[in-house]
Specification:
The two termini are about 35 Å apart. The longest helix is centred in the last third of the chain and has 26 residues. This protein is about 55% helix and about 15% strand. By secondary structure, it is an alpha+beta fold. A five-stranded antiparallel beta sheet has the order 2-1-5-4-3, with helices on both faces.
Length: about 240
């Protein structure tokens, strides 16, 4: 494990009090760093909305996003059990017989994943979602890696629950709903870029995030501007 990257990640996860804090960019950073630090093939974050229903907040790849969506729509899978129990849930060698979630297992294997580890995003007795780690092979995550993964999830949860709560009277539910609403705008912007430049959705998101950083804007603000933009206002196509 890259100790310098690990240290930088904890610093970044703890730095939620800056003026331009962007929840969606924060969660995508969590998934990207989880992949790099924990030798995962992909990672995703699901958060509960004010009604307690899980929704996708971030994913490191389109395949991870689709399998997260499958779990939510079919109400089965390790991330749902993790959220409901507040405990880590392991799904090992999903291509084998006797699966606990047979429909999910088949969908995960088809998406290219054979191992899933769901880690609760929790603070004491409150569970707000789950950080889900995916591997293409049947190898389980090492216990030391899972401890790091849980620590990342815990620090991220504290950041989400503390952010802006000290500065304004928003409730936690309102904060999480705002994050989930922001993600809808980002998905629309991704789709617009993908259609315009004939890109995969992963590539479209990378272009969107790069453009936000180059223009020193929040990711959500960049996405909203793009959704309302004319063709002339699009970021340049990759490779130009």
């Amino acid at each position: 494990m890259d100790s310098e990257l690990l240290s930088d990640t904890f610093v970044d996860l703890a730095d939620t009090m800056v003026a331009d804090f962007d929840i969606i960019d924060f969660l995508h950073m969590l998934t990207d760093r989880s992949v790099r630090l924990l030798a995962a093939s992909a990672a995703g974050v699901v958060l509960a909305d004010p009604r307690g229903e899980l929704r996708i907040a971030a994913a490191s790849s389109e395949a991870a996003e689709l399998i997260e969506l499958f779990q939510i729509q079919n109400e089965q899978g390790p991330c749902l059990d993790c959220f409901r129990t507040g405990r880590p849930v392991t799904a090992a060698d999903l291509s084998g017989p006797g699966q606990r979630w047979p429909e999910f297992a088949a969908a995960a294997v088809q998406a290219g994943f054979r191992t899933v580890e769901a880690l609760p995003m929790r603070l004491r007795g409150q569970v707000i979602g789950a950080l889900n780690l995916f591997r293409a092979g049947p190898a389980l995550f090492e216990p030391a890696d899972l401890r790091v993964g849980q620590a990342l999830a815990d620090v991220a949860t504290i950041g989400l629950l503390q952010e802006r709560n000290l500065r304004r009277s928003e409730t936690i539910a309102e904060q999480l709903q705002a994050a989930l609403n922001s993600r809808i705008i980002i998905e629309q912007a991704k789709g617009k870029l993908a259609e315009r430049y004939d890109l995969a959705m992963d590539q479209a998101f990378a272009l969107l995030r790069d453009h936000a950083r180059e223009t020193n804007q929040r990711l959500t603000e960049t996405a909203r501007n793009l959704v309302d933009a004319t063709t002339a206002d699009f970021p340049p196509k990759p490779g130009r």
